[in-house]
Write a structure and sequence with these properties.
- The chain is of the alpha+beta class and 250 residues long.
- Helix content is 33%, strand content 19%.
- The strands form 2 sheets. An 8-stranded antiparallel β-sheet has the order 3-4-8-6-9-2-1-10. A two-stranded antiparallel ribbon has the order 5-7.
- Helix 3 crosses helix 5.
- The protein starts with 7 loop residues before the first strand and ends with a strand.
- The relative contact order is 0.25.
- The model has no long low-confidence stretch (mean pLDDT 93).
């Protein structure tokens, strides 16, 4: 167990109430970056610009301060990224987890984090059956990626009507999928502690190993829940601004 006395605590003052967070010591790049931004006052006046019930609340878009309601938010950042720090299964996407937002895999295969944007997980509770379905998702993802990588070949066989070569390639890709899934099975195999957390507390298990988890809510989850229940527009932006008034290191 980490020594709680040495963990950095921060207090986020919002117009919906206060949220107290702790930052993990073994995600030092994210911890130090967050502390730096807090000390610079970067978060003061920014909005929770993306709120999805039973999923998460997201803030930290540096262009969101005093943003008019018709302004498209979500792309504002500080011009650098923070290298991913996955500490799974120690830290996972349970309810209350503080995580780094990022751009998608197609432009960011290293899964590097946004400099300023973060989200707090609300999620939902999962049944045992739903968790088993999630564990089977890795094979689907691997097969889809391999298909995409071999798209020119597949299209060539398809256009020429070469069903035999198409079948051989398909079997090859299935075999490669099985091998890769076996090597990576620990990524999706939920240990008993995670299973219980996702069943009893809730969270977003399909984001594990995709986004860095670097802290958690220690007080004020009722405030997070109040924010996630806000009325939103089609862009998932609350119709009444939810403002981060200030953040302080405790």
């Amino acid at each position: 167990m980490e020594n709680q006395a040495t963990e950095t605590r921060v207090l986020m003052h919002t117009n919906k109430g206060d949220i107290k967070l702790k930052l993990y010591n073994d995600t030092p790049l994210h911890r130090d970056n967050f502390i730096k931004l807090v000390k610079e006052g970067q978060y003061n006046g920014l909005l929770f610009h993306r709120v999805i019930k039973d999923f998460m609340i997201q803030g930290g878009d540096v262009t969101s301060k005093d943003a008019p309601m018709n302004k498209q938010l979500g792309a504002g950042d500080l011009g650098y990224t923070v290298p991913a720090e996955f500490r799974y299964p120690k830290y996972f996407h349970k309810k209350g987890a503080l995580c780094a937002a990022r751009t998608g895999d197609e432009v960011n295969p290293e899964k590097a984090s946004s400099a300023s944007q973060f989200y707090i997980v609300t999620g939902k509770k999962y049944s045992e059956q739903e968790l088993k379905q999630l564990e089977g998702r890795l094979k689907q993802e691997i097969f889809a990626r391999l298909q995409n990588e071999n798209k020119p070949k597949i299209m060539e066989f398809y256009r020429s009507g070469n069903k035999e070569e198409l079948a051989i390639l398909r079997d090859t890709l299935i075999g490669k999928t099985e091998l890769e899934a076996e090597k990576r099975k620990d990524e999706v195999k939920l240990n008993p502690e995670l299973r219980e957390a996702y069943k009893n507390e809730g969270g977003v298990p399909f984001l594990d190993n995709q986004y860095t988890v670097y802290g958690e809510v220690v007080e004020g989850m009722d405030v997070v829940d109040a924010i996630q229940s806000s009325k939103t527009n089609k862009q998932d932006r609350p119709t009444e601004n939810i403002v981060i008034n200030s953040v302080e290191i405790l």
